[in-house]
Every structure is written in C-alpha cells, then in structure tokens.
Amino acid sequence: MPTLDPFGYNVIYNLLSLTVATMGAATLFFFFAPRVNARYKPAMIVTGLVTAIACYHYFQIRLSFEGAFTAQTVDGARAYVASGKPFNDFYRYADWLLTVPLLMVELIAVMALTKAESAKYLRVLIPAVVLMIILGYPGENAISTGGSSAAVWGWFVASFIPFLVVLAVLFTQLSAAIDKQPAEAQGLIKLARVVVLITWSFYPLAYIIGALGRTEEGALSATAVVGLQVGYTIADITAKAGFGVVIYFIARRKSELEGYETQGLPAAA
Ligand code: RET
Predict the structure, then answer these.
(1) In a structure prediction context, what are the per-residue pLDDT tens digits for the chain, which is 269 residues long?
(2) What is the CB < 6 Å shell around ligand 1?
(3) Among 166, 190, 245, 251, which one is most buried in terms of CB atoms within 10 A?
(4) For ligand 1, atom 13: residue with the closest CA
(5) Cβ of 124: how many Cβ atoms within 10 Å?
C-alpha cells in the first residue's frame, strides 16, 4: 500500500463507514417494505439480503483498511503509512460473488414471471455474472500485488465478455417479458435495467483507474488507491441500495394495481 495523506485516508475511511450505515438501514427498509403485497415479498427479501451481506463486508473492509495503515509524522506532516498488514480486497469479490447473482434474482422475482420463464433468464444471467467476477479477481490481484500489465488487461478483457452477455440478455431477450408486464409498471422495469447498465459500468471504470494509476514498477499510487476504493464503494451503494429502491417502487406499483390484502396468502378464515 502506498502512503496516503490524511485527506485520501479520511475520504476512504469515512466512505466505508457511511456505507456500513447505508447498507444496514437499507436492509431494514427492504425487509419491512411497506405497502408491498405478499407476491413481491420474496423480491424484497432478496433485496434486503444483498444489502445485509454488503453491510457485513463493508464492516470487514473498513477494519482491514484501518489495519493496513499506521498514522505517522513524515517530514513534519501527518501521513498514513503501510503497516505491513495487507489490505484484503478479496472481501469485495466475496461480496460480489454472493450479491450480484442475487441482484439478478431480484429483478426477475419482481417481474413475477412463470417458473419456466424465470428459469430461462436466470440460467444465463447467473453463470454469466459469476464468471465475470471470477475472471475479474486475478486481474484485481495483479493490480494490487504489482502483477504484469498483461495479467491486468488480459483478465479485464476476459471478465468484460460475460459482462457484455449480461447486458445483451437484459436489453434484448428480457424485452419480450417486459412487454407482457402491466403497462403502468413497464417504465419502472426499464428504469431498473438502465440502472444496472449505469451502476455496473462504474466497476470496470474503477478497475481502469486502479490499473492506470500504477507506477512503472507496478506499485499502486495513492491516487489509484483512492480512485479504486471510492469508485467501487459509490458503485456498490448505487447498485445495491439504489437499485433496491427501484425494485421496491416496481413492487409497490404492482401491489397498488393488484391489491394489498391476501395476494399469495391462504384465504382468511
Ligand atoms: C471487474 C473486472 C474488470 C472487468 C469487469 C468487471 C466488472 C464488475 C462488475 C461488478 C458488479 C458488481 C455489483 C455489485 C453489487 O452488488 C470485475 C471489475 C467488467 C460489473 C453489481
């Protein structure tokens, strides 16, 4: 880890801390999901699981970040110098491995398609997102451990292919299913799709910032560390909590149309 000035250190530390709070609060909200009928509760529970998993991981990332530095006075100024303990960036990939497939489940669940139709989409989307993350990790590791440029960019390209597959499925095949949704909900579902496109694009961008911010010897610069951590964190808040709010709006709109009471529940005695 490079030495960080107090500004860079504080920006990362405070953003990680804010994210723990945001993910925790989002989880409570999604689990309660007011004015959503029983048919859409599974989608809201999955949405809350995503933010709950992230809340835990951000707590761990914050601890790991704190442990990776020691505050020292360098040339009369305060600086955060590498402590020798590594910063564990596997937490992010472990988090994505669990949450990104769940994000796809949220989107499909809130559409309440038939079992066969849901399976048709998830059979492609889930393996594609898992592959995207698995292929991205060796590249991320090459960025943080001074690996070769060939590794950094080779894995980037490999991971980008399944990323494009996901976007292709969402923007072509899924359109047929969206057209069959209630007219009043179609706009919001299309919005959810655009939110995926925009928020997910931050991740490869943050990766590029990290990759380009390496010194000649392959070490990470302070700017690269701040860019990478701030980029991934903002992306996670929007892709999990922000996207979750759109899923909630879809569930609420469809509940308004279908009624709140006994949908999906056994009939009242
Ligand atoms: C990597 C490696 C470089 C190439 C690409 C990547 C894409 C990552 C994405 C991650 C999405 C994560 C989400 C998490 C929220 O829970 C792995 C950075 C394309 C798209 C949505």
Answers:
(1) 899 999 999 999 999 999 999 999 999 999 999 999 999 999 999 999 999 999 999 999 999 999 999 999 989 999 999 999 999 989 999 999 999 999 999 999 999 999 999 999 999 999 999 999 999 999 999 998 999 999 999 999 999 999 999 999 999 999 999 999 999 999 999 999 999 999 999 999 999 999 999 988 888 899 999 999 999 999 999 999 999 999 999 999 999 999 987 545 554 44
(2) 96, 99-100, 103, 132-133, 136, 139, 156, 159-160, 163, 200, 203-204, 207, 236, 239-240
(3) 251
(4) 100
(5) 16
Distance 133 CA to ligand 1 centre (A): 6
What is the number of H-type helices and E-type strands within the chain?
9, 2
Query: Which candidate, 4, 107, 126, places its Cα nearest to that of 47?
Result: 107
What spacing in Å lies between the alpha carbon of 137 and ligand 1's midpoint?
10
Return the ligand 1 atom nearest residue 206 CA.
18
Closest atom of ligand 1 to 102 CA is 16
Q: Which of 102, 126, 159 to mutate to test the pocket of ligand 1 (most atoms within 8 A of CB)?
A: 159
Atom index in ligand 1 nearest the CA of residue 162 equals: 19
Pairing of strands 69-74, 77-82: antiparallel
| Structural domains for the chain | 6-257 (1.20.1070.10)
